Amino acid sequence: MAFHEAIKQLSALMEQVDEQQRSTFQNMHQGYPTETLVRFLKAREWNVQKAHKMLMDCLNWRLQNDIDNILTKPIVPVDLYRAIRDSQLLGLSGYSKQGLPVFAIGVGQSTYDKASVHYYVQSHIQLNEYRDRIVFPSATENQGRHIGTCIKLLDMTGLKLSALSQIKLMTIISTVDDLNYPEKTETYYIVNAPYIFSSCWKVVKPLLQERTRKKVQVLQGCGRDELLKIMDYSSLPHFCRREGSGSSRYHSSSPGADNCFSLDHPFHRQLYDYVMRKAYGPESMMPVKQGSFHVNLPDPDPEGVKIAETIESEMHKFENQNIDGHINGLHI
């Protein structure tokens, strides 16, 4: 009963927004306003005032950064976009048996070193918006029920201490998601976790909110057998199909049709073609300018910063242990 009352109160507050805010809210909810209100309420533990502030901040962020039109702003030339796809490894590998989109993320081998921070943030937001405006509505139509969440598979293959240099950017991207796209992920499955991740996870896990912690499952090895309980083999990303396969960056030995990270994968081709049509189509009156789409980056959530700092600290400890072990080994 309290949940219904919270939804009712937040809905009444949303009736007071101005026309611009109402328009961008419609782009957000895609015909499912109540489900969207619930997401923000969940993200703020069903506190109506906090959820309202979070939602208003999100609407203003969308308006200030023209997020409604971000799918009309391609990253050009295509070679730059390919370089981003090669170094920011993520893609849609398929759907679960329940019809939820399955997104794969190559955490361990994403280098984020081929473009500026703004390009990576732009690319990430474009994928979010395409998911919300195209992928979810299509899945909803196919399933005959509302689909508004996805499954994420995080591949830790190749995770090294050099990942410390990426923590700041990953914290920025995570903050964009936490503040503006909350409660979009049903479950996070972590696969191919090396020892360095396992050590960090033991420390980070207690820092997470219970709601988030319940969503994270660390699977044995590539997780294939467990994942096949919730999705067909065809929806498994390449790094989950056999033990030791690992994720791989785009190259000739990793065909685009099989590698969901690659620009040549059908999902990324469809996404890129969609953005190009929106940019250069008949309704577009202005030529596309080259240059990144600069989004105002939100201040990282204090909890997110704390977690990132803890990860960094634990990885440094791991590095020092390795160095000490190596030095001791030399004296034996």
Structure report:
This is Patellin-6. It holds the Pfam family CRAL_TRIO_N. It comes from Apostasia shenzhenica. It is a single chain. The protein is α/β, with parallel strands linked by helices and 332 residues long. The protein has two domains: 2-64, Helicase, Ruva Protein, domain 3 (Orthogonal Bundle); 71-280, CRAL-TRIO lipid binding domain (Phosphatidylinositol Transfer Protein Sec14p), CATH 3.40.525. It contains twelve helices and five strands. The protein has helices spanning 2-14, 19-29, 33-43, 48-64, 78-87, 117-143, 167-180, 195-204, 210-213, 224-227, 266-280, 302-331, and strands at residues 90-95, 101-106, 150-155, 185-191, 216-218. The chain has a five-stranded mixed sheet. Helix 1 (2-14) packs parallel to helix 4 (48-64), helix 3 packs across helix 4 (48-64) and helix 7 runs antiparallel to helix 12 (302-331). The protein is globular, with a radius of gyration of 21 Å.
**Topology as a string of helices (H) and strands (E):** HHHHHEEHEHEHHEHHH
Instruction: Work out the number of β strands.
Output: 5
The biggest sheet, with number of strands, parallel, antiparallel or mixed sense and barrel status, is: 5 strands, mixed
How many individual domains?
A: 2
CATH class of the largest domain: Alpha Beta
Judging by the overall fold, what is the CATH architecture of the largest domain?
A: 3-Layer(aba) Sandwich
**Count of helical regions:** 12
Summarize model confidence as the mean pLDDT.
Answer: 85
Which class do the helix and strand fractions yield? alpha/beta
Spatial order of the strands forming the largest sheet? 1-2-3-4-5
The percent range for helix content is 40-55%
How big is the Rg?
21 Å
